[in-house]
Design a protein that fits this description.
Elements lengths: L7 E2 L4 H12 L6 E2 L2 H13 L1 H14 L8 H20 L39 E4 L9 E4 L8 E2 L13 E7 L10 H12 E12 L1 H8 L6 H12 L15 H11 L3 E4 L13 E2 L2 E2 L1 E7 L1
Parallel strand pairs: 1-2, 3-4, 3-6, 4-5, 6-7
Antiparallel strand pairs: 7-11, 8-11, 9-10
Length: 299
């Protein structure tokens, strides 16, 4: 881990799952590729670009000082707490049972160490703020539209799942409307939220909107709802599927999203009726009811 970053193929076998998990939790999820052809292409690319490979090594070394995966002392204290709880239960003469050991606080991140593979020089608005609009479709002064691929209106190409082009603590605000539900709830979603937390400055804000899965599920089960409108509800739940990236992979509620944000490191998260920033799906309504779950989270 200290010298050469691991390159892994996404898959279902144990070797793939364990390598994917380790890379995600060390902040190197951009080293996970979709298939063997992509694996070979990335390996050859890195071999031909020693500067990029060196940057990956530096990011890996820096993340070892920050990510929970390598916080050995915290793991040891947590395990000791479990042993003590088991022993105390035995001494009281109680039967074996499942124990819930409260999580211990982790070590503070080393903010002075850069973790980005190739930190970009963020564009600032007139007030000096750096604000990212994830996969945005509406230009607005003071907001930089970022997208995974070049396209009309895209100001900076950067995969929103990793934001590898942005340095830690370099961004004031991130806005993402109906994007995060497209990510797998097993690994991608948490890794993407953790990446947003990484690039935000302390006190920075992540404003995100996703389909309200709980409300949409209730509407789907409403027998009085016309069939055409139930089909619309189904499309909102699973995505319009007009392209490979327009497929929803996670059903998110206030409870689920709050838990993901907490695990990613955000201090607070609250639901808001409207952000009042862009004319997009964060304002979507059906049957007179808001169907977008709008959350404002603070680092």
């Amino acid at each position: 881990w200290a010298g050469v970053p691991l390159l892994a193929v996404r898959g279902r076998r144990f070797a793939s799952r364990i390598s994917n998990t380790m890379l995600t939790h060390i902040g190197m999820a951009d080293m996970i590729v979709a298939d063997v052809d992509s694996y070979l292409a990335r390996a050859v690319h890195l071999a031909d670009h020693p500067d990029e490979l060196a940057a990956l090594r530096r990011r890996l070394a820096a993340n070892r000082e920050q990510m929970p995966l390598f916080d050995v002392q915290r793991f040891a204290r947590q395990l000791e707490s479990a042993y003590e709880a088991v022993w105390a239960r035995y001494c009281r003469g109680e039967a074996p049972a499942t124990l819930n050991i409260p999580a211990l606080p982790g070590r503070p991140p080393a903010r002075s160490t850069p973790v980005s593979a190739a930190p970009a020089t963020p564009q600032k608005d007139r007030s000096g703020l750096v604000q990212l609009h994830v996969e945005g479709g509406e230009a607005k002064e003071g907001w930089m539209i970022i997208g995974a691929r070049p396209g009309p209106g895209v100001d900076r190409v950067s995969d929103p799942r990793h934001l590898a082009e942005f340095a830690q603590d370099s961004v004031d605000a991130i806005y993402a409307s109906w994007f995060y539900q497209r990510l797998s709830h097993r690994e991608e979603l948490l890794a993407a939220l953790a990446s947003a937390w990484r690039v935000l400055k302390p006190g920075g804000t992540l404003r995100l909107a996703v389909p309200d899965f709980q409300l949409l599920s209730a509407l789907m089960g409403d027998a009085a709802l016309p069939a055409a409108e139930r089909f619309t509800v189904m499309a909102l739940i699973f995505g319009d599927q007009t392209g490979p990236d327009r497929l929803n992979r996670a059903g998110l509620t206030v409870e689920f999203l709050g838990a993901f944000l907490k695990r990613a490191g955000f201090r607070t998260a609250r639901r808001v009726r409207s952000f009042g920033l862009f004319n997009d799906r964060s304002n979507a309504a059906l049957q007179g009811r808001a169907v977008s779950l709008n959350i404002e989270a603070v680092k």
